[in-house]
Each structure stands twice: as C-alpha cells, then as structure tokens.
Task: inverse folding
C-alpha cells in the first residue's frame, strides 16, 4: 500500500527513490517468528529530544549490535525504546540528527536486523524523532502513547528537504507516505480511501487522480490534532501499529520474546566507567553506610555509570539492607549518563542481603549461588512489608515513565517474584500465558493487574506466605529473576561488554579493621590474650601491664562487634558486671560461690550476644552461628587456662618479667615459714587500738602500740591512718575493724 507525495515534491521524491532504491529491498525480508531460545538481539533506549551527542551514542550502539550479532540463521531483534527526558514532551529533536539515524536504520547492511520501535505508556514522540520511529520495521505503542506532530518545532513551514526525507523513509519501510507527511505538516488533510483493491491513505489534493485510476467506494478524512495520534488510534483506525503494549512485559508477550531480550543491553550502550563494591560477611549499618557513600560519590563526582555490587553475605541487619537497597533503586545518574547497577551474587545473598540484590537493575548469580531464604537475620513484619511496598512501586513499569521520566524500568520481570524473595504475605505461583506461551510469576494481586488475567493459566506454587523464598542460580534464571549465571568475573565482563575489571573501591582503614576483627581466629586471639591479661593482673598488686593488655583486647573485641552491628551497650554492661562479680567472689566473699558462678555466666552470655544478631536462634543458620560462637569462647577459655599455667611456670624465672610474678618458695622455705608462723602469738594484741599504715584491701599493715603487724579487715577497704581495733586473733592472723 503506497500513497503519493505532494505534486511539488514528486521530482525530489523520485531522485530520493533512486538514492534509496536498495533500502526497500532490504526491508522486504519476511519477518521471522522465533522461538524464545532462538531469539537474539537487545534493547536500546533512545532518549528524546535527539540533540547534542544523542545520535552519536545511538549510532555506536547500532554498530555494537552488528558486531555482537553477526549474520546467522535468525535475524537479531533490535528494540528501540523511546523515552522522554525529564520534563520533555517529545519535542525539540534536531532534524539532521534524526534524519541520519533514520537513514542508518534503513541502509542495506541493516536489513539483517529486525528493528522495532517501542513507545511505552506515557511517552510522547513529537518533532523529528517521529522520523526514527518510521524508519523501524515495526512500531509497537502503548494505547495512551502518542506519535506525531513531527513538524511542531518548525518555524515558517516545512521545506522540500524535510518532506522528501519523510517520504523516502516511509517508502523504504512501506508505510503510508501521506500519513508521514500529515504528521509532518498539520495543515495537510489526509484521507483514508476504500477502493476495490484495499485501503489507501492519500492527501486531499491527490484524491482526483486516485478517483480516475481506481473505483473509490469510501472517503474518510482523518481527524487532525494536527497529525498527532495515540497508539490505540494507530492500531484500530490506521493500522500503522502492529501491537499494543504498555510496558516491556507486554512487549515481550506481543513479540513472543524471552524477558531477558527486552532488558536494556548495557553491552550495546557501552562506554562503561565501572566500579565494584563488595559486601562480604554479615550486613552491618557501618559497612553498608560507607558503601552507599562511596557509590554516590563515585557516580556524582567521578561520572561512574556502572556499579557492580558483589555480594557474599548471609544478611544480618534488615534496616541497613533496606536502606542500601532503596538507595541503589533510586540511583539514576543523568539523562546523558544513566547508571546501571548489577548485583553479582558469588555464593550467597541470604535473608535481608537478598534485598540489596533486588534493589539493583540486574541480578547475575554464580552457578552454585543462593538468594533469599533464612540467614543471619529475622526481619519483622514491618521491615518486610515496608520494603515490599517500595519494591512493588519501583518495579511497576509505568512508574519510571510516568513519575521520573528519565528513569529506565528495573529489569526484574514482575514484582511478585522479588516480593516472594522478601517474604510476601501472599503466596506466589508460576503462570503461563495461553496465547504467547510465556511464563511469569504472580501473586493474586499482580495477576489481577494484568490486562487479561483470564489469559494466564496457573502452573505451580513457588512460595509460602510470610516466608522468604530461596532460589539457586539456575532456579532464579529459569524464573527470570537472574539475568544470567556466570562462573567468574571474566564471564560477567563479557556479558556487559566491559573491557577492564571494574575498579574496586578502595576500602578505608575502618573496612580493613572491621574485616580483621570479624575473623574468627582474631576473635579467639583477643579473648585469649585478654583472659591471660586478667589472670596476670590478679597475680600482681595494683593495676599493671596485665590489666592494660586485658582492657585493650576486650575493647577491640567489643568495638569490632559494635561495628559489625551485633554488639551494643547491653553486651558491654553484661561483661563489666560479670567481671565485677567475679572479682567480688575472689576478694570479698571467698568460697561463697554465687557471685563467681553468676559473674562467669554473665561474661559468657555477653560474649555470645556480642558475636551474633539473634538473641534466641530461630533457624538453622543462627543455630550454626551460636555453635561457632560457643566453640570460639570454649577454645579461648582453654587457651587462657593453658596460658595461666605457662605464665606461672615461666615468667618468675624470666629476666625482666620476673617482677610480674614472684617465684614460689621452695619446699625448704615453705617448711621454715610454716614453723615460724606456728611460733607467733598475737593474743596480747586482742582489744588493743592502733592505726593503719597501709591501705587495707582488705589485708595490709597496721601499727598497734609499738608493734607493726599484718592485719586483715574482712569486708572493708581502709585507707592509711584509719583508727582500728583488734577484734580477733587466730594464730598469726590478726583481724581488725575500724573505730571512730
């Protein structure tokens, strides 16, 4: 079906037809319907208006597509998604740039690629960007999307050059020339004409010639706004649009393509400036807060446009994970430099660590990796539901277009699958579309949001309400949650067209310290040395080297756990209280037992709580964590006992350190001491008054009369110079009390 051009442009069109004569031949290749596993291609966004270097970056993407998909049995599909820049209503595209892009799309060497223009919901394609849409082999639009008013930016009318360009491109793609010219010039009246041979579109001044050639049965003038039509009008009235699709999901269903083919292909848009951040071990507020700051600084200050978030974590802090996930979900960059975030799950992203992955544009998993399920956290219902609601809003394909304009939709196929990973209150199931044969995962809520819920047939349930779904890499790939599974970083780089390894964001000294203090062997070492320091301190008077070493070791231990997010003031208070009770047992109430036993128990409880997030384990992972913590404490305890025995034997005879421990008396010295003590008699001091000469803690020295003797004041700590009275004498043991 062909229309003719304006009379004044016939000659020019004829010349243009000679120049582009081969173009129509290239576009006449029959469309192939591919099976999903056979389909090749990618999606490129064309941000409107076409100004500055938009056309150059788009041309580079086209060349990468030709390189990435060499000629083969199946034609690669190039999906061109039109996107309005923020605050733009589609106008403002430069004619020469748009013309160059359109001509590139219809050149003979591009005939082996099937081009599809996709205009999603809420997008308006006005100005000369219309020319690029006309240059595509197919056009698919949302019912409310708009296309037309190509000449809205022109002042003083449209010249022959522009009319020729629109005519030639329309001819090359076998689209009605009259419609193309009507969209270019709103003053032209286009007619839909029914003839014996079919329907044609012609301009008003071309009607007389057509009536002479053919039997015209009906003439209908098209409504002019001028020359602006919705997707619904193009589909039902004009026939220029092949399918209606409001989002990428419906686009994939219409073309019977796999979900991964309707995702932005970063390997095509390319020119990556990439960084990598790592989340290893338990999730903590300090760790994720620093990662968030570094990522934002890299994007804003350094122009980074590719962020690889490498995850190997069991989770740990739902609130911190949620905050980072929301931050990554809102990381957009600029119109000229959009940001792609990719979560690479090397081994595991369990519990709330999975939320971080869901906040990224893409998820790539190791072949043996796991996502979701229970791990090192137990998020409450408010945590889960709050994130699920935001996730639903973010994954709604209409919202990025309607609310943010420049934002590209997140690539996860449905919010139900991600919500099931978090632990949605509704169960999710796999459904198959009876028409397109495409499978998706829906909750009942999302199923009801589909254009035709009855077209989806339920296959199998995949999740349980309020329980986090756990998937392997292959399962996530099959369900469409993961874009791909890879063995290593090299395969991931190939997937995204990265030439160099993403620069690993340099960790600060806090990162190094935190990773060191989190190591199990370091934890055992700190507890061992700290315990040995306490033992040494108990063997020497006053506060010495042993006390200082013990203080530093326990300070580092609890500080590391505090940065890890597992310890707080409660654990510190329990530890200090337990230590005080043990000292009371040793010095104030020897032999009583309750303070020593209770204090030791408090110390163990504080160390256990400081090493894990759960107070009471609720799943197998947390039980395993408790077991490991108890083994660490037990190992440190055995080490302290061994260290105490060694210190008692070695240090008294070691030069320079023998002042810390007095060498125990020999057998002969002990016998002499026992004999001399048995001869001592202090009965004559009973009832006498005196004065302390040293501090009694509770033992010390006192001057009673003219005699300096060792005394004990049970339960009291007396300062030097305190008046005392001898209340009891037991052999050589003189017991005193303070008097007024």
Result:
């Amino acid at each position: 079906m062909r229309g003719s051009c304006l009379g004044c442009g016939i000659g020019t069109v004829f010349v243009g037809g000679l120049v582009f004569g081969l173009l129509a031949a290239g576009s006449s290749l029959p469309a192939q319907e591919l099976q999903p596993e056979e389909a090749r291609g990618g999606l490129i966004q064309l941000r409107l208006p076409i100004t500055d270097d938009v056309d150059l970056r788009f041309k580079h993407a086209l060349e990468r597509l030709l390189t990435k998909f060499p000629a083969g049995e199946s034609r690669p599909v190039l999906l061109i998604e039109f996107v309005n820049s923020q605050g733009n209503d589609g106008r403002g595209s430069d004619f020469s740039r748009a013309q160059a892009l359109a001509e590139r799309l219809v050149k003979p060497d591009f005939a082996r690629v099937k081009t599809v223009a996709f205009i999603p919901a809420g997008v308006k394609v006005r100005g000369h960007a219309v020319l690029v849409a006309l240059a595509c082999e197919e056009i698919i639009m949302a019912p409310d999307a708009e296309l037309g008013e190509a000449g809205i930016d022109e002042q003083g009318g449209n010249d022959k050059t522009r009319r020729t360009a629109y005519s030639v491109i329309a001819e090359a793609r076998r689209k009605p020339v009259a419609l193309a010219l009507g969209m270019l010039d709103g003053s032209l009246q286009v007619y839909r004409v029914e003839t014996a041979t079919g329907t044609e579109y012609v301009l008003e001044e071309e009607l007389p010639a057509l009536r002479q050639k053919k039997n015209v049965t009906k003439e209908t003038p098209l409504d002019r706004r001028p020359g602006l039509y919705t997707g619904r009008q193009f589909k039902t009235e004009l026939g220029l649009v092949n399918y209606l699709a409001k989002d990428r999901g419906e686009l994939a269903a219409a073309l019977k393509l796999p979900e991964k083919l309707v995702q932005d292909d970063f390997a095509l848009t390319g020119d990556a400036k990439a960084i990598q951040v790592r989340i290893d071990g338990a999730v903590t507020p300090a760790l994720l807060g620093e990662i968030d700051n570094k990522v934002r600084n890299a994007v804003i200050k350094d122009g980074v446009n590719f962020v690889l978030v490498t995850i190997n974590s069991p989770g740990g802090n739902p609130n911190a994970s949620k905050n980072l996930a929301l931050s990554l979900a809102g990381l957009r960059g600029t119109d000229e430099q959009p940001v792609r975030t990719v979560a690479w799950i090397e081994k595991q992203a369990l519990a709330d660590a999975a939320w971080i992955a869901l906040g990224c544009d893409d998820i790539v998993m190791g072949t043996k990796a796991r996502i979701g399920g229970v791990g090192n956290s137990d998020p409450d219902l408010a945590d889960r539901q709050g994130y699920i609601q935001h996730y639903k809003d973010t994954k709604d394909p209409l919202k990025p277009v309607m609310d943010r304009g420049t934002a590209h939709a997140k690539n996860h196929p449905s919010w139900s699958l991600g919500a099931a990973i978090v632990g949605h209150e509704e169960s999710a199931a796999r459904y198959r579309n009876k028409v397109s044969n495409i499978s998706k995962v829906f909750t009942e809520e999302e199923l009801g949001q589909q254009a035709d819920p009855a077209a989806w047939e339920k296959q199998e349930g995949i999740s349980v309400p309020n329980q986090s779904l756990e998937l392997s890499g292959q399962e996530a790939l099959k369900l469409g949650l993961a874009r791909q599974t890879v063995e290593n970083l090299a395969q991931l780089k190939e997937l995204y067209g990265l030439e160099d390894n993403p620069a690993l964001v340099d960790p600060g000294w806090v990162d190094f310290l935190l990773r060191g203090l989190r190591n199990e062997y370091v934890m055992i070492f700190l507890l061992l040395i700290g315990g040995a320091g306490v033992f040494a301190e108990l063997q020497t008077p006053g506060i010495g080297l042993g006390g200082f070493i013990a203080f530093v070791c326990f300070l580092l231990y609890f500080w590391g756990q505090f940065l890890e997010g597992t310890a707080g003031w409660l654990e510190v208070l329990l530890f200090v209280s337990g230590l005080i009770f043990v000292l009371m047992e040793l010095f104030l109430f020897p032999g009583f037992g309750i303070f020593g036993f209770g204090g030791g128990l408090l110390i163990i409880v504080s160390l256990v709580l400081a090493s894990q997030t759960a107070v009471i384990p609720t799943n197998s992972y947390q039980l395993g964590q408790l077991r490991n913590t108890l083994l660490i404490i037990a190992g440190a305890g055995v080490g302290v006992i061994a260290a105490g025995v060694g210190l008692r034997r070695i240090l008294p005879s070691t030069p320079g350190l023998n002042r810390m421990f007095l060498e125990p008396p020999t057998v002969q010295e002990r016998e002499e001491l026992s004999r001399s003590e048995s001869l001592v008699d202090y009965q004559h001091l009973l009832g006498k008054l005196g004065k302390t000469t040293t501090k009694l803690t509770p033992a010390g020295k006192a001057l009673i009369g003219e005699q300096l003797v060792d005394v004990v004041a049970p339960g009291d700590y007396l300062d030097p110079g305190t008046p005392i009275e001898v209340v009891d004498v037991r052999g050589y043991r003189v017991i005193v009390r303070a008097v007024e």
In short: The chain is about 40% helix and 20% strand. The longest helix spans residues 620-650.
